[in-house]
Amino acid sequence: MELLNTVFPNLMQKLPEFYQAIIDTFVMVGISGSISFILGIIFGVVLIVTKPGGILERHTIYQVVDKSINAFRSVPFIILLTLLLPVTRMVVGTGIGVKGAIIPLVCGIVPFFSRQVESALTEIGSGVIEAAQAMGLSPWEVIFKVYLRESIAPIVRAITLTTISLIGLTAMAGAVGAGGLGDFAIKYGHNRFQEDVTVGTVIILVAIVCLIQFLGNKLAAKNTH
């Protein structure tokens, strides 16, 4: 404790707020991540099955989903935050804090994760799909028993990568008062020139990212066959 007080004097004075910032970051990642993973898998599957030559080829649906994802991916997240502010206020009643960050985070990460899922599902060869259809599997059975079941490992890797990216977005959201470690670092480390706060926040973020990467690699390796 003596060493910590010497190296991180300002941070140690704000430990309760620092702990709350860590909790807020996990809440934002947990809620927005859960929503994004569900939507991303849905959109990723839609892209695969409705594309030209897909098992449920639908040109209009594919074009709408594909172009919408491209549109959202082309908008920098910091601009997306301010662009969605009226929508966020209308839905959750506030544009700041943890609640105010959920909708922009979801809109920012779903397009990214959808492309990751699409890429993972593309690894399933067309021969495997044709064989499944020849065995009499319905399109829904092909989706769940072939596409998703055989893509568990790459999807886990996509979830790991997306979660790490999401942590980065939560830190960026702190620039507009979204709460969490990003907001904590900007409020004290940047605005009040307390460098030890910034360094301490970065150390915690790096530790969280390393832990997520480690767990993701283990889970992906366990499901690789």
Explain the overall architecture.
With 225 residues, the protein is mostly helical. The protein has one domain (15-222): MetI-like fold. 82% of the residues lie in helices and 0% in strands. The chain has helices at residues 2-7, 9-12, 15-50, 59-73, 77-83, 85-92, 97-122, 126-134, 139-150, 152-173, 180-190, 195-222. Helix 4 crosses helix 7 (97-122). It is elongated. The model has no long low-confidence stretch (mean pLDDT 88). It holds the Pfam family BPD_transp_1. This is D-methionine transport system permease protein. Its main location: membrane. It is found in: Cell membrane. Belongs to the binding-protein-dependent transport system permease family. CysTW subfamily.
Key terms:
elongated; MetI-like fold; 82% helix; 225 residues; 12 helices; mainly alpha
Structure in a nutshell:
Helix content is 82%, strand content 0%. With 225 residues, the protein is an all-alpha fold. The longest helix is centred in the N-terminal third of the chain and has 36 residues, at 15-50.
List the helices and strands and how they pair.
Layout: H1 2-7, H2 9-12, H3 15-50, H4 59-73, H5 77-83, H6 85-92, H7 97-122, H8 126-134, H9 139-150, H10 152-173, H11 180-190, H12 195-222
Helix pairs in contact: 3-4, 3-7, 3-10, 3-11, 4-7, 6-7, 7-10, 8-9, 10-11, 10-12, 11-12
Q: What's the CATH architecture name?
A: Orthogonal Bundle
* Domain count: 1
- Biggest β-sheet strands, sense, barrel: none
Which CATH class applies here? Mainly Alpha
What is the helix/strand order?
HHHHHHHHHHHH
Q: Which parts are unreliable, with pLDDT below 50 for 5 consecutive residues or more?
A: none
- Category by helix and strand content: mainly alpha
Strand tally is 0
Beta-strand percentage?
under 5%
Helicity level: over 70%
Round the Cα radius of gyration to an integer and report it. Answer: 21 Å
Shape: elongated
Mean pLDDT, to the nearest integer, reads 88
CATH names the topology as MetI-like fold
CATH homologous superfamily grouping: MetI-like
Intertermini distance: 47 Å
Count helical runs.
Answer: 12
